[in-house]
């Protein structure tokens, strides 16, 4: 047998057919086991072409010498090939069978996993679409809960949202009040720990709350186990998703994975809903503001259109941005031609006075704008024979210059009335002066006894005529003065003057009047010791002071005081006449320098006067390049001040 083994080894190694025709002759093969074996044929069974693929041997022997003819050898070899092929097939089949079996096993598992995975994805997909359909958080959370309950076979579920106000209690969403109530403690735990929890037995878990807070209690009527997952978005726990089952230990890790995936979506949805609510609130607020603004703007525009004065708004660059109907009418220019153009372009059409107005607009557009309350420019424009007053003021928003507004008013009528008044005053005073001079002259003569001796009665009557003629003469002189000033027919004769002397003279006259009328009024004078000489027309300054002091005396009740002051001020001399009299109301203040204006006050009405004094004062002060102004408070008193140039 050993010898046979050796033969076989040789064939396996060489892969060649081995033929021994006579074992007796063939020494190298040694003795074969059967002494009577004389010839041997060994054919390899080869699965492939190479020697290494020998899978078996075909072994023939015979007791005859040279028993195997070449034909038999060929036949054997053909048979061996056939057998080898068959055996190869059989083996491959077996192998395949194994592989197939293994595959089938794997496939079965994969299939189950696949089915599970599919249903899991399906649930998540449905939740995702539910969540994206609506932004109504309550509805969405309830739908999500029922989907998840179905997917993991839970009996109850609830979502607990962290309540940012109370921070302790959660705001619960769900259909089972019992679960919503008792899940609070577990929800709290999940929120604090930032981690999910599977609770196999609710009744043994201290995190499950029933009855008294935090006490594990047996009574969970139907619910035994639970699963709770935090809802996390952008790192914050927004709430807790909780599912409950009536059997203990009902939730697997796989369920947990699904619920976790769903929880991610829910958290995002809650975040979105929050965001949406925020955006919606914001949008609503914005909308409301816009509406209000629109209404306000419309109202403003309507008001602007309605006012009788022309209004023109010019932006920072000097372009016209707004023009109301009155402005169109007053300027005689169309809105369409004006808008977005510069005021310079209309200079030619707007006549005298327009230049300084347009220049101010351009100046403000290019340079620093004087930022003071009450900065404005008043001008007169001549437009096609009409007189238009324009009042220009810069507009500031905080500190920023945002343009200027011009207000136009057609004052042609006022100007005309003014002119007629002046004409009348001039004519009337002229016509009155000659007869009045005669009346006064003859009354004086009669009183001097030029017409013979007078009875007591005649003397009394003549005195009345004389004093009234005096008053009328004063009035006529006032009127004449005024008309001369207004028509520019008055000339000044300025000389260096000691103001304290003028004041002394005026007060001497007032003191005479005081004594005559027996009115108790204190008179004070405060003249600065270093008061410089002023360059003025002495008669006119006396007239100014007399008028102011007369007013102070007239409109101050007995027991009051008049103070006259003079002091140097910013290169000029300021003179003031202050009294503690009846004062002037706010409404009347702007009018007192107008001709014939007298306040509607009983003291004023009782005092004889024509309302010309201050008009003359104003003109005379301005003729001296000065300025007169007044501060007054009813029942407290008034202070008139004016400036005179230093010599
Ligand atoms: P006249 O032409 O005789 O002076 P008048 O005194 O009424 O008459 P104005 O001197 O021009 O006229 O003054 C105008 C008005 O201003 C007065 O009628 C009075 O209402 C008011 N007024 C002037 N000075 C004072 C004052 N010191 N206190 C209160 N009111 C005054
Ligand atoms: Mg007066």
List keywords for this structure.
alpha+beta; 5-stranded antiparallel sheet; 20 strands; binds adenosine-5'-triphosphate; 647 residues; binds magnesium ion
Please specify the SSE layout and strand pairing:
Layout: H1 2-14, E1 18-20, E2 39-46, E3 54-62, H2 70-133, H3 137-152, E4 156-162, E5 170-174, H4 177-182, H5 184-193, E6 197-199, E7 225-233, E8 236-245, H6 253-306, E9 310-314, E10 320-323, H7 325-331, H8 335-338, H9 347-350, H10 354-366, E11 377-383, E12 386-397, E13 400-410, H11 412-447, H12 456-486, E14 495-497, H13 499-517, E15 522-527, E16 534-536, H14 538-554, E17 561-569, E18 572-579, H15 602-606, H16 613-623, E19 628-633, E20 637-645
Parallel strand pairs: 15-17
Antiparallel strand pairs: 1-2, 2-3, 4-5, 4-8, 6-7, 7-8, 9-10, 9-13, 11-12, 12-13, 14-16, 17-18, 18-20, 19-20
Helix pairs in contact: 2-3, 2-6, 3-6, 11-12, 12-16, 13-14, 14-16
This protein binds adenosine-5'-triphosphate (ATP) and magnesium ion.
Residues 547, 550-551, 609, 613 line the site of magnesium ion.
Mean pLDDT metric:
84
Uncertain regions spanning at least 5 consecutive residues:
211-218
SS-derived structural category: alpha+beta
Percent helix: 40-55%
Task: Count up the helices.
Answer: 16
What general outline do the C-alpha atoms trace?
rod-shaped
Task: Describe the protein's architecture and organization.
The chain has 647 residues and is of the alpha+beta class. The protein is built from 16 helices and 20 strands. The strands form five sheets. A five-stranded antiparallel β-sheet has the order 5-4-8-7-6, sandwiched between helices. Helix 3 packs antiparallel against helix 6 and helix 12 (456-486) packs across helix 16.
């Amino acid at each position: 047998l050993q010898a046979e083994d050796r033969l076989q080894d040789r064939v396996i190694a060489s892969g060649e057919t081995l033929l021994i025709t006579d074992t007796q002759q063939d020494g190298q093969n040694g003795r074969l086991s059967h002494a009577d074996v004389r010839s041997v044929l060994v054919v390899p069974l080869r699965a492939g072409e190479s020697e290494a693929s020998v899978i078996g041997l075909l072994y023939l022997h015979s007791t005859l010498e040279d028993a195997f003819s070449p034909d038999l050898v060929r036949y054997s070899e053909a048979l061996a090939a056939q057998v080898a092929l068959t055996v190869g097939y059989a083996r491959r089949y077996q192998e395949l069978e194994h592989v197939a079996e293994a595959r089938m096993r794997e496939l079965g598992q994969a299939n189950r996993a696949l089915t599970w995975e599919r249903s899991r994805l399906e649930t998540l997909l449905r939740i995702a679409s539910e969540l994206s359909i609506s932004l109504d958080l309550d509805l969405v959370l309830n739908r999500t809960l029922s989907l998840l309950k179905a997917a993991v076979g839970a009996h109850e579920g609830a979502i607990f949202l962290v309540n940012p106000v109370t921070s302790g209690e959660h705001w619960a969403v769900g259909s089972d009040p019992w679960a919503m109530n008792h899940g609070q403690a577990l929800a709290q735990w999940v929120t604090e720990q930032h981690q999910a929890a599977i609770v196999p037995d609710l009744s043994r878990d201290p995190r499950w709350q029933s009855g008294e807070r935090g006490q594990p209690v047996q009574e969970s009527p139907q619910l035994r186990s639970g699963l709770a997952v935090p809802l996390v978005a952008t790192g914050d726990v927004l709430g807790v998703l909780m599912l409950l089952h009536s059997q203990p230990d009902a939730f697997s890790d796989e369920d947990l994975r699904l619920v976790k995936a769903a929880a991610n979506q829910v958290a995002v949805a809650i975040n979105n809903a929050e965001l949406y609510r925020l955006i919606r609130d914001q949008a609503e607020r914005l909308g409301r503001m816009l509406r209000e603004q629109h209404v306000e703007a419309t109202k403003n525009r309507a008001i602007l259109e309605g006012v009788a004065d022309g209004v023109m708004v010019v932006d920072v660059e000097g372009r016209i941005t707004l023009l109301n109907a009155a402005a169109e009418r007053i300027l005689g220019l169309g809105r369409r031609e004006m808008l977005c153009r510069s005021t310079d372009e209309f200079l030619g059409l707007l006549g005298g006075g327009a230049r300084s107005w347009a220049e101010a607009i351009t100046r403000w557009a290019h340079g620093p704008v004087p930022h003071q309350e009450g900065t404005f420019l008043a001008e007169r424009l001549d437009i096609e024979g009409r007189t238009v007053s324009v009042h220009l003021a810069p507009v500031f928003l905080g500190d920023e210059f945002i343009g200027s507004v011009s207000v136009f008013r057609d004052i042609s009528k006022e100007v005309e009335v003014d002119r007629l008044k002046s004409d009348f005053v001039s004519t009337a005073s002229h016509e009155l002066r000659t007869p009045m001079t005669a009346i006064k002259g003859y009354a004086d003569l009669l009183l001097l006894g030029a017409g013979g001796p007078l009875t007591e009665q005649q003397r009394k009557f003549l005195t009345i005529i004389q004093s009234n003629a005096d008053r009328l003469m004063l009035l006529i002189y006032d009127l004449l003065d005024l008309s001369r000033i207004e028509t520019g027919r008055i000339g000044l004769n300025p000389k260096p003057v000691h103001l304290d002397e003028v004041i002394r003279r005026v007060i001497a006259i007032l003191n005479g009047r005081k004594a005559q009328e027996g009115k108790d009024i204190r008179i004070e004078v405060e003249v600065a010791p270093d008061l410089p000489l002023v360059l003025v027309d002495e008669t006119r300054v006396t007239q100014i002071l007399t008028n102011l002091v007369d007013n102070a005396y007239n409109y101050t009740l007995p027991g009051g005081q008049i103070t006259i002051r003079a002091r140097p001020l910013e290169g000029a001399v300021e003179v003031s006449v202050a009294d503690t009299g009846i004062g002037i109301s706010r409404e009347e203040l702007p009018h007192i320098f107008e001709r014939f204006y007298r306040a509607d006050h009983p003291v004023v009405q009782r005092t004889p006067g024509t309302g010309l004094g201050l008009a003359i004062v104003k003109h005379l002060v301005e003729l001296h390049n000065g300025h007169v102004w007044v501060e007054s408070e009813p029942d407290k008193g008034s202070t008139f001040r004016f400036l005179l140039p230093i010599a």
